[in-house]
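Last lecture ended with a question: if I hand you only a sequence, what can you say about the shape of the protein? Today we answer it with a concrete record. The protein is Cut9-interacting protein scn1. Below, first the input exactly as provided, then the predicted structure, then a couple of comments.
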Amino acid sequence: MSVIDTFDVHCHIHETPGTLGVLDNNKNIAYCVQATRYTDWDSVAQLKEEYSDRIIPAFGLHPWFVEQVESGEIPETWRSRLKLLVTKHGGIVGECGLDRAARNPATGKQYPFEPQIVLLKAQLAIAHELDVPISVHCVRAFGALADVLQAAEAAGTLPPRIMLHSYSGSPEMLQQLFLRGELGARVYTSYSRIVNGRNLQKTLQCIRVMPHSRVLVESDLHDASTTALALDQAIEMVAEAHGWLLDDARRQLAENAQAFFANK
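The predicted structure:
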């Protein structure tokens, strides 16, 4: 039996089922497969059932679909269904978050921001209630995200662990907004080559700012056949940031992921 030594903490491989055959070969990799919309929760649950030992399912509503919540296209019962799926399948909450850059391709308009905050708060509350980690997307909204998380900290309702996935803010933001108090003890940052490789020097600085035990890597990809290479490249970034050997970086990152997903 293969030993898992690499964790892809954020991917969407359920969206390209034709590539999933590679999971039969990549038996050393565990995948946290992140649902983003109400209609793909079942496919993530099915993937967990098919590859139970190497899939950590994540169920959430991405900010890009907030208008479907507002319009009622996503039923009001979504919260209870999300709780049921997370509990039944041993999952986490995600992908959720805030996005001030993306636009609805149908209208060309940015997604409404205040409803995004409401949607994020609801999912944070579920993660706290179920005592499970959460995976958070954030683009050009780090101040607002910090406000939401700090309010949850003050109320004693933070989830046990919080992943800022493909973190694209600055190292100064990490130190000033996210690495203080109880929140600072629960935050992990994850890095992908596809997103964070665009500004490698800033990414290396962010990795160095984080405690060694709370850095993660991800592919953030949809095609399962491309994830192994993407993960190797992300691991190389962490090794470069700290001057580590690749094997040492892989070992540390696996330990970090195991801690993040503890009891999942």
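Comments.
1. The mean pLDDT is 97.
2. Strands lie at 6-11, 29-34, 55-59, 92-99, 134-139, 162-164, 187-191, 215-217.
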